[in-house]
Design brief:
With 315 residues, this protein is α/β, with parallel strands linked by helices. The protein folds into 2 domains: 9-268, Alpha-Beta Barrel (TIM Barrel); 284-315, no CATH class. It contains 9 helices and 10 strands. It has helices spanning 28-40, 54-64, 84-91, 113-131, 146-158, 175-188, 205-215, 236-245, 257-268; strands at 9-12, 45-49, 72-78, 97-101, 134-138, 161-168, 193-198, 219-222, 285-286, 311-312. An 8-stranded parallel β-barrel has the order 1-2-3-4-5-6-7-8, surrounded by 7 helices. Strands 9-10 form a two-stranded parallel sheet. α1 crosses α2 (54-64). The longest helix is centred in the middle third of the chain and has 19 residues, at 113-131. The N and C termini lie far apart (44 Å).
């Protein structure tokens, strides 16, 4: 990891990926409250608009009254299909950024690699003309041949992409393969912001995210409490403290994390486990009194970083 990079952007996707959890839905007031909390925590960006229900999410964002907040608002649009330009036009003036999705798997459209490349280039040009900047996301980036991914990243940079997001869509990667892949991409696209999107199907979302940063990624997709499709996504709170542990600033207020976690737990009714890293009830609760004599030997980070304190278990 380069010593010159001292901060990584954490892009929160709780209001996009997090709402894919079965039974989870947030009303306008809850979304507004969450957006304000993310802004107060100094999270740089919130990804709010999903491609599957674009109009609904965009209308909800209009109703949320997000003016006056520092946090940037973004959304996803598939770079193919008859509504692409219409959706771009609707998002203009509402979203600060859109990421054009081009699934890399042969099983998802656009059909054929040449067609994927052609439509990506056209979509990036259209987004650049309309927004003044363009970004692209590659679902299934970790599931296709690395040479194909690297070629698409190279073409995206030439087409004007300012950010490229690599998706570990099915959560099947490990930190070693992620690091190797990100290093290869970084060599090709040195002047483009590189983002990594982790899923937690094998319990490696946080580790994969940290590996991506150590290999050269500038940005990470995260969600509060790790909410997301299936087994969830990389947890905002876990990733933030893991970055601190390797000397990388996550750019957010760490002492807001526990309250943010509790607020999202209350909104979604998805319980946070007592053993959950960073925000769990037992993280700084020691059953052995001897641990309190030299707590740094038994704790990964100082509890004051996240606005809490250590304690001795009552039983």
């Amino acid at each position: 990891m380069s010593d010159k990079r001292k901060m990584v952007v954490l892009k929160d996707s709780t209001m996009r990926e997090g709402l894919d959890v079965p039974g989870v839905a947030l009303d306008i007031e809850q979304k507004r409250a969450l957006l304000i909390m993310l802004d107060e925590a100094q999270v740089a960006e919130a990804e709010i608009v999903a491609p599957g229900h674009f109009d609904r999410d965009l209308d909800a964002l209009k109703d949320m009254g997000a003016t006056g907040l520092r946090i940037k608002l973004s959304g996803l649009i598939y770079g193919h299909g008859p509504r692409f330009r219409e959706q771009l036009n609707k998002a203009k003036g509402i979203l600060h950024r859109v990421d054009i999705l081009i699934p890399l798997s042969d099983l998802r459209p656009p059909t054929g690699r040449d067609e994927k490349s052609r439509q990506m280039s056209e979509a990036l040009k259209a987004a650049g003309d309309m927004f003044g900047q363009a970004s692209v996301g590659f679902p299934h980036a970790t599931q296709v041949e690395p040479d194909f991914l690297i070629d698409m990243c190279s073409q995206a940079a030439l087409a004007g992409a300012e950010r490229i997001t690599l998706y570990d869509t099915n959560g099947s990667s490990n930190p070693f393969t992620v690091a190797d892949l990100v290093k290869q991409v970084r060599k090709i696209v040195q002047n483009v912001e590189l983002c990594f999107h982790a899923h937690n199907d094998l319990g490696m979302a946080t580790a994969n995210s940290v590996a991506a940063v150590m290999a050269g990624a500038d940005c990470l997709d995260v969600t509060v409490n790790g909410l997301g499709d299936r087994a969830g996504n990389a947890s905002l709170e876990q990733v933030a403290l893991a970055l601190v542990s390797i000397g990388v600033a996550p750019g957010i207020k760490l002492d807001y994390l526990r309250n943010l976690s509790k607020a999202v737990e209350a909104m979604t009714l998805i319980p946070v486990g007592q053993l959950a890293p960073v925000v769990g009830e037992f993280v700084f609760c020691h059953k052995s009194p001897s641990h309190l004599e030299t707590p740094t030997l038994f704790e990964a980070f100082d509890p004051t970083l996240v606005g809490t304190m250590r304690s001795l278990a009552k039983r």
